[in-house]
Design goal:
Elements (H helix, E strand, L loop, with lengths): L3 E3 L2 H5 L16 E5 L6 H13 L4 E4 L3 H10 L4 E2 L10 E4 L10 H11 L5 E3 L14 E3 L3 H11 L10 H12 L2 E4 L4 E4 L5 E4 L11 H15 L5 H19 L13 H16 L1
Parallel strand pairs: 1-10, 2-3, 2-5, 3-4, 5-6, 6-7, 7-8
Antiparallel strand pairs: 8-9, 9-10
Helix pairs in contact: 2-3, 2-7, 2-9, 7-8, 7-9, 8-9
């Protein structure tokens, strides 16, 4: 039986702090996102919005012109452009809103260069196929179907629905050499050394399109603000904050049934979730 650590609000609080008079935008964390596509520009908009709302001091975006225009229309604070070398990037977010079957050779090369570096990376959705062999510290964020495909790619025996998800996540983390965040009503985070963390902080209303793109942006912000922190703990804190923001957005703070939400509602509730954590 695998020992699973239950993550709490108090655990999350350790990875958040209010800025001081000595902090500048770089000290609060710099997030760079290479996400979205002409087919799914909203994924980039949601991820960038979430990174800002979760506390990043500086957010950069790299992507197609049409997608960059959508990002700027929503968040004009964002710096758009391919040259991020001088921006002191603390975390990358890649893959959200992309399809690997439509990825160009140029895009694949750019993503592989990110994964060959030293800056930690959140690998989501359409970039999950590039995770094996990555040298940068990384966190993959699959949902159930993506996780099954990842198991097949790694030649790890897929688990049936009734099998232990914690053991499955642990096996994939060990095989891939990076942290794994397996999304679900009970989110599981496994590290390559065998540790597993469980986060139960969300709401059923979070099962809505784009919520994973928001989560990716949150994870990038928490990662950039905590250089050197264990990626499994960064992932758990980000997942807890994301779930708490969803509860706030759905009106569940007082124990009621809540109401429907969309992904942008979750992003917009993130500052209130951060305030609760800091309080």
């Amino acid at each position: 039986m695998i020992e699973v650590r239950e993550w709490s609000r108090g655990d999350t609080a350790r990875l958040f702090r209010p800025p001081t008079a000595e902090d500048d935008k770089y000290a609060r964390g710099v997030v760079a996102l290479r996400t979205g596509s002409p087919a799914y520009p909203g994924a980039a908009v949601l991820g960038v919005e979430a990174a800002w709302r979760a506390g990043a001091g500086f957010v950069r975006y790299v992507g197609a012109d049409r997608v960059a225009d959508a990002v700027l229309a929503r968040r004009p604070e964002t710096v758009v452009g391919a040259d991020v070398g001088s921006s002191r990037v603390g975390a990358w977010v890649i893959g959200s809103g992309t399809d690997p079957s439509h990825r160009t050779d140029e895009e694949s090369l750019a993503l592989r260069e990110i994964l060959a570096g030293t800056t930690p990376v959140v690998i989501d959705a359409g970039a999950l196929d590039l995770a094996p062999g990555a040298r940068a510290p990384f966190l993959v964020t699959p949902h159930a179907r993506e996780f099954t495909r990842l198991q097949e790619r790694l030649r790890v025996q897929p688990h049936d629905e009734d099998d232990d998800r914690a053991d499955a996540a642990r096996q994939v983390a060990a095989k891939i050499g990076g942290a794994v965040l397996l999304k679900g009503a009970r989110t599981l985070i496994a590290d390559p050394d065998g540790g597993v963390i469980a986060v139960e902080a969300g709401t059923g209303w979070l099962a809505t399109a784009g919520s994973g793109d928001v989560l990716a942006g949150v994870l990038g912000a928490v990662m950039a603000a905590n250089p050197g922190a264990a990626l499994a703990e960064v992932a758990a804190a980000g997942a807890w904050l994301h779930g708490h923001a969803a509860r706030i957005a759905a009106g569940e703070r007082d124990g009621g049934p809540g109401h429907p939400i969309v992904a942008m509602d979750v992003a917009e509730a993130l500052p209130h979730a951060v305030q609760d954590v800091l309080g």
